Amino acid sequence: MSARRPMIVAAAAALLAGSAGCINDDLYLYETELHGTVSAPMSLAPELELHVEVHHASFGTGPTAHPLGLVETFVVELDGDGSFARTVLVPTELGEGLVVYAWLDLDGDGVLCGLDGDGEPEPAGLVELDAFPAHEISFALTLDASCVGPELLFP
């Protein structure tokens, strides 16, 4: 029996070493400076927060690929002319293309058209950035849909 013990220990060590080899995969990021100009049906007051999501247009590979893989979310206060800028680090190995979705928080609750909202519907919009990959992308985003998430706006 003692002759089998070194084989079992060696097999366990090989299994552990083989499974640990996949833990430290490299992550490749592409730095993109986004310059957006937002327009909406109402005036854009500077105190309103714009909730922005950056997505891969297509996320995953093969049969598990699906649209809209989230890359980053952030909140910005718009400049007086409805513009904003943000540097985003996009993982290159996880998806393709780039989409920007945003909605304007009219009631200040941080929830898109929450049930307790008593104001008007919050406008949302989406734009696919055909210029990606590029280190600097300027785009115009029109918030012309009410109370919809990115899944309903992207094909």
From TrEMBL:
Q: Does the keyword Signal apply?
A: yes
Superkingdom assignment:
Bacteria
Q: Which UniProt keywords apply?
A: Signal
Q: Which residues form the signal peptide?
A: 1-22
Protein name (record): Lipoprotein
The species is Enhygromyxa salina
